[in-house]
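Entry for the shared binder. Reason: the reviewer on the internal report wants the predicted structure included alongside the sequence.
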Amino acid sequence: MARPAIAPATGTRFASQIFIREVYLVAGTAHIVGPNTTRIVVELVGGGGGGGGVDGQNSVATMAGGGGAGGYSRKVFDVTPGTSYVIAIGAAGAAGASGNNAGGAGGDTTFTVGGTTVTAKGGSGGPGDLGATAPRCQVGGLGGVAGSNGDVNAPGEAGGPGMNFDNNNCVTGFGGSGPFGAGGIALRNGAVGTDGIGNGSGGSGAGSVNTVNRAGGAGTVGAILVTEYGVV
């Protein structure tokens, strides 16, 4: 589907601007806009949080929470053709280590033009679990809070709760999903957490119905989608 032209900023001499290209960034510290680019739309997601690990117990099912997805921000900037702009990609939240260990938080993703830095916040890690009498649940990690300086700033999806229904059956917490990635899936009973897929998603929590300790799933790095417009 063809992209529509977008209106220029007030005071520009162009009647319209046309789509030039999209650039998807998952690494690096700078983005150089094209030689004909005069306006960009940036969409950012923070890094996803890791799922929690579990300390296996004989008498109860243990299940950890999933990691939260990174938050989302969107901003339209007028830019100077051929100019380099500073970026940062939010790191992936580490998987919760085997045992009662929380997953790591995801890092913040940023894009700076002039004096304005748009920030999409990273998701929180899911808590680990040591076990207690069923039925109960273990909350998931919070999604990245709404960021700053975007035209749109939205929080990420929280990780799912781990739940045990009796002392021999449990479901682990799923990882939060976002616009650029799917969270690690929830799993039943004894399972290592699954990693998020794509960018900005959370890892799922681990589960155990015996004395085996298990690690959670890792979150995924953030990302920036830059859509460039200009005149040719």
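Summary line for the report: The chain has no helices and 16 strands.
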